[in-house]
Design goal:
The protein is mainly alpha-helical. The chain folds into two domains: 1-31, no CATH class; 34-84, Arc Repressor Mutant (Orthogonal Bundle). The chain has helices spanning 11-20, 51-64, 68-84.
Length: 85
């Protein structure tokens, strides 16, 4: 049986763990894919939406644990990726 990854209090603790641990000994099945936003946001957009749509966007973003504006940005990126196919 594989080991459970411990909980860390700081980024430093997590970094030290990853640097020294043999991760093949640990159960990584509960991991999540995380997307980091590294590109600077240099433009602003003003968008008028029906209140019900904005409420639904905020609720969905809250379920995912991200700010609603990031949720909108990710939804736009995903829509554009699907149109490229």
């Amino acid at each position: 049986m594989k080991k459970i990854i411990p909980t860390f209090q700081t980024d430093k603790e997590a970094e030290d763990f990853v640097d020294t641990a043999d991760l093949t000994e640990y159960d990584l099945s509960g991991g999540q894919v995380v997307k980091f936003e590294l590109k600077p946001k240099d433009r602003s957009v003003n968008l008028r939406l029906p209140e019900s749509l904005l409420d639904a966007v905020r609720a969905q973003a809250n379920k995912q644990g991200i700010p609603y504006q990031r949720f909108i940005r990710l939804a736009l990126e995903q829509a554009l990726q699907h149109t490229k196919s």
